[in-house]
Amino acid sequence: MAAVVAAQAPGPPAFRAALVVGVNEAFDDSQAALRYADDDAARYAELLGPQVEHLELLTVLDPESQELFPQAAKQARLPDAAGLDQALERLKALADGARALGRRTELYFVYVGHGRVRGGEGEVRLLGGALSRSRLTTAVLEDRHFDRKHLMVDACSAYLLVNARGESDEEVDAAFERFLEGQTLDRFPDVGAVLATSGAGPTHEWSRYQGGVFSHELRSALTGAADADDDGKVAYGEVEAFLASANLQVPALKGRPKVFVRAPRIEQAAALVELDQDLPALELPAELAGHYVLEDARGLRYAELHKEAGFVMALRLQPERAYALLTSDGDELLRIPAPSGVTKLRLPLEPVPARGWDRGGVALPGEVKDAPPGAFDAPYGPRFMAGFWARLRAESAAQGELTVVTPQRSYVRPVLGYVALGVGGVAAGLAAWQASVASSRYDAYLVTYSASEKRQLEGEVKDARLRAGSLGAAAGVAVATGVSLLLWEWLSSTEQ
C-alpha cells in the first residue's frame, strides 16, 4: 500500500528559467532601428518573472523605458555575445542543481529584435554582433541541461531574404516554414517554438501597443486569455488558435505577422506556460462577450482579447500594479486598484469615460495611438478553437499528412453522457412504478361502491399518472442527452 501511495505522489515541482533578449539596434542602414524591442523584453520579463525561478534579462533600455520599467533597468545586462554566453552558463548551473534534486528542468528563450538571412543562414541582432542559427543550435537547442526548451522569437524581417526577390506571399510563407521546420526544429523533439516575422517591416511595431504586434498578442495569450478550457495551462495549440483569431482580420500589408507555432514533438500536449494559481486573477464570466483591453497603471496594454460567450476566462495579474478593464473604444468598465485573490467581473457593466492614470510625470513615447486595423476583431474561445483545428485537420488530410497536434482528449462528454443515461434509466424506472400505481388505483376505483372512496382513488390515479408522465418526459430528455453526448464524442474521436 505504501508503495502505491509513493508511486501516486506528485514529484518535485519543475525548475523553470527564462532568458529574455531585446535589441533595438539594426544590422545596417537598410533596416530602421526598432523603438520598442527593449520595452517588449522588459514586459516579457515582468510577465514570465512570477512563472519562473530565475530570469536573465539582456537589453539596453532607453531613458523613457527606464522610467517605465525601473526594476528591469536594475536587472538588465548587456545583450551582446558575451552577455548571452554568461547568462546561459548561469542558467545551466542552476538547472544542474535542480536536476540533482530530481526536478524536471525547462528553459524559456525569448528574443525580440531584428533578424535577417545572411549567406543562407538566419541570424538575429545582438549588441555589436549577431546570434546565428548555428550558434543558437549549439548554445540552446542541442543543450541537454533542460528537459524542455520553449522558444519565443519576434524578429522583424527575419528569414525573409526570399521576400526581397519579389516572391509571392504564399512562397514567402512556404520558405519561412521550411527554413524553420525542415532545417532546425525537426532535429530537436524537446524544443517547442512560437515564432513570428513581419513581411511588412515598418509595421512591426505600433505605438498603441508600445511594442511589436506579435509580442503584444503573445503576452496577452500568456496571461490566460488563450486558456480556452480553463485548466490553468496555456497549451501550444491554444496559443496558435488565439494568435490566429487575433490576426484573422488584419490585412497582410497592415502588419499581420506570419506566425509559426510548434509544440515539442516528444510531448505534443505540453503547456507553453502553467499559470501561477497564486497570482491575482480577473475572472470574466461565461456570459460576457466582446473586445476588451486590460491596461495597467502606467497606461500600457497588459492584455487584449476578444472573448466568445460561453466560457470563463481568467487573466493572471501582477500583484504590485493597478489595472483597468476597458472597451475597445477606451471606455472604462472596471478598475482594480490592488489586485488580490480572484476578482470576478459582475454584469451588467456600465462603461464610463476613461479616467486615465496618474503616471507620475512619466511620458509614454509615441503619442499617436495607432494600431493595426482588424486586430482582435474575431472572437476567441472554445468554438473558434474547434473550427480552427477542424480546418487544419482537413487541410492536412487533403495534403495526405495529418500532422496537426490537437489538444488532449477530454473525458467530460463521455462521463456526462453515461451519467445522463443513468439518470434517464432511473427516471424511466420511477415512471413505470408510478404508472403501475395509477393502474392499481384505477382497478380499485372500478370495483368500489363508496362515493368518498371513489373520489379519493380518482385523485390518486390523477396524481400517479401526472408523476408517471413527468418522470417519463424527464427520462426521455436524459436519454436523448446521453446519446447525443456519446455520439458527439464518437464523432470527435473518429475525426482525430
Structural class: alpha/beta
Helix count from the secondary structure assignment: 13
End-to-end separation in angstroms reads 38 Å
Share of helical residues: 40-55%
Please compute the radius of gyration using only Cα atoms. Answer: 29 Å
What is the highest CATH level, the class of the domain at 14-275? Alpha Beta
Q: How many strands appear in the DSSP assignment?
A: 19
Q: How confident is the prediction overall: mean pLDDT?
A: 80
CATH topology of the domain at 14-275: Rossmann fold
Q: Quick one: overall form?
A: elongated
Low-confidence stretches: 1-7, 157-168, 199-203, 359-368, 401-411
Proportion in β-strands: 15-25%
In the CATH hierarchy, the architecture of the domain at 14-275 is 3-Layer(aba) Sandwich
Largest sheet, described in full?
Answer: 8 strands, mixed
What can you see in these coordinates?
- The protein has 13 helices and 19 strands.
- It is α/β, with parallel strands linked by helices and 496 residues long.
- Among the domains are: 14-275, Rossmann fold (3-Layer(aba) Sandwich); 413-495.
- The strands form five sheets. Strands 1, 2, 3, 4, 5, 6, 7 and 11 form an eight-stranded mixed sheet that branches. The protein has a four-stranded antiparallel sheet with strand order 15-14-17-18.
- β1 (15-22), α2 and β2 (54-59) form a beta-alpha-beta unit.
